Amino acid sequence: MPASRTPLWVLAAALVPAGLVVLASVLQTRFPLDNLYKDVASGADLILDRGQHTGTFPAHLGAISNLGVVLWCFTAGVCAAGAGVLRARSREATCLGAAAALTLVFGVDDLSLFHERIAARALGVDENWIFACYGLALAAYLVSFRQTLLGLDWIVLAAALVGFGISIFLDVLPVDLGWVGRVGEDGAKLVGISAWTTFHLRAVWLLTTDANPGGPSPGSQPAF
Prior knowledge:
By secondary structure, the chain is an all-alpha fold. It has one domain. Helix content is about 75%, strand content about 0%. It contains 10 helices and no strands. It has helices spanning about 10-25, 35, 40-50, 65-85, 90-110, 115-120, 125-145, 145-150, 155-170, 180-210. Helix 1 (about 10-25) packs antiparallel against helix 10 and helix 4 packs antiparallel against helix 5 (about 90-110). The chain starts with 7 loop residues before the first helix and ends in a 14-residue tail after the last helix.
């Protein structure tokens, strides 16, 4: 599907809100960026290491990270529901079911930092191997359902992949970029998650609407 078939508002919905959240986090001066961007466990460790613990942890701890987890879980749930609606159309149902499973895995990893805390520290598995496994799973999803995905808003999905790629690159980069690296890594991931969410919500809408008589075909322009 040509990029022009994707309405501009869809691309804007995928990128602008998350971008504004990242921008606002950088411009504000009330909350430390480390507290906002680190997951709750890592943020708590950092506060304890600095001797800043006063009996309770701040409510904003892990806010950006938690927002990403919420989007992962919401997307997985919607995709699973869409797969249930389309159970009579095995190809589309399997596509959404695979998206739900993959999204759930990414969300659980984001919540528990499986690649860093569990795999690397507890199991002794290099996190790069975990990233490789995730990459293979994602590639299998993209290749297996390429015909369905290319009939949807593929440019939004591409934006998500770019965001994830930037985030992973900054994560494995053997150079400490300070707060710029932290915001770049987790900010790019948040934008990527937002685009991933937008793409799959639209996919569920288009595919389930197409399942009804008279509905638009996947990749066609919706009525709104």
